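Example 243, ligand iron/sulfur cluster.
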Amino acid sequence: MIGAFGRTIEIDLFGSKAKICSFDCPYCDLGATQTRLNKLKEQGAVPSSQEILAQAQQRFRDIHEKGPGVDSVIISGNGEPTIHPEFPEIVSGLISLRDIWLAGKPIVLFTNGANLDQRRVNEAVNRLDQRVVKLDAGNERIFKTMAAPLSRVTLQKVISGVRLLKDVTIQAMFVQGAVDNTSSADLEDWIEVVGLLKPHSVQITTITRPTHIAGLKSCDEDTLHTIATKLERRTSLKASVLI
Ligand code: SF4
């Protein structure tokens, strides 16, 4: 895939077996979150760190030997990577493999931020080159609607975890229709939270694919640029609009 991080190779910690996430965002293009990690564990279907790293080694080596080259390695995929029970071991292994086969290429994590306040997760995440955290709510009401957490995760918990990161990119989804996080008051709250976190970059986007919840609408480009302008006026942070 090619996007904000150039040509990338994606490392998926759950494979095609199921989407595993602590959130059930209405706009998720992976569909509704239906499988719990515990169920997958009971079935013995969680890929082990050894399996994930063996596959990564093969793919990294192929790219090194045959190309085409990549600009970055993305940890993302079928759900929330930090939920994987061996997440820290996988991060260590990927860094070692990258140093051998794809030296100099940054490893970027996409996360929903729910586990960042756990020390073992936070330490691992801080060893990576870049951290992109989804944050599209500035108050608990919108957080519940936009993230629909499946456990006791609050916006405050996510903020506490993000504040432990050495640097962060915030990625925010804006939607309208059946769920709407673009009212003036909700945007003001979001801008305040983003300003507090002082990210080194901000990306804002909207839905571009069908969603599993009916009645969601994407924002038009003007709305996204207006949000970016409001953010910059209040915080001096520039946001890239990705659509
Ligand atoms: S956090 Fe990401 S993977 Fe999880 S439900 Fe939301 S959009 Fe989907």
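Summary: The CA atoms of residues 88 and 131 lie 14 Å apart.
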